Amino acid sequence: MTKIKACIFDLDGVIVDTAKYHYLAWKELANELAFDFSETQNERLKGISRMASLDILLEIGGIKLTKQEREKYATKKNQRYIEMVSQMQPDEILPGAKEFLLAVRNAGIKTALGSASKNAPAILKRLNLTALFDVIIDGNKVTKAKPDPEVFIKGADELDIPYELCVVFEDAEAGVEAALSANMKCVGIGSPETLSKANIVIDGLHQMNLNKLMAL
Length: 216
Ligand code: B16
Ligand code: MG
Hints:
Layout: E1 6-9, H1 19-32, H2 39-42, H3 50-61, H4 67-85, H5 97-106, E2 110-114, H6 120-126, E3 135-137, H7 150-159, E4 166-170, H8 173-181, E5 185-189, E6 200-202, H9 210-214
Parallel strand pairs: 1-2, 1-4, 2-3, 4-5, 5-6
Helix pairs in contact: 1-4, 3-4
The structure holds 1,6-di-O-phosphono-beta-D-glucopyranose and magnesium ion.
């Protein structure tokens, strides 16, 4: 049995359901550019950085833009996204997330956030979750997107915990790959087909407990 010393959490899809707001904001942009964007297509954007997401969206729409135009549209999407998430309510925290964070902390295990989102600190603040994390690594602190492990490596380094004693909680395939390539354990949140490389896959943090954590 490994003595797990830190848990590193992705934000979107693990702690909160912000994916729906990302989707709505991207869809509005697609419609403005005169094409439609489905929820299935949106799956490709999960866990991916803002600019990389825009590039995928434009590829779907068959649209080519200059760098300046791309920046303008990424900013516009983000402004719309911020408008939506600034109205979020505590009941949008995913089931079991707060309870599991508290249980982990009570057991003396460190916690970190490892998110690709530059909006992560504002969302945590809005939902009163900031104090539940010892360390927050977000999209402003990393240069390489998942599946590069930079975001999780930085989290473990700031916590000063060896990588093999860290568990990452992730809902995106790219995030699972990032965790495993950092030599960390990984709990997948979502579909066992998409996240098959994770050590275990669960529906949400409501299905997690300290016994399962220590058995990883
Ligand atoms: P932002 P996570 C990711 O968050 C989202 O899954 C992804 O859809 C989004 O494009 C990315 O953050 C960047 O977000 O535009 O707010 O900087 O899953 O890594 O917590
Ligand atoms: Mg995610």
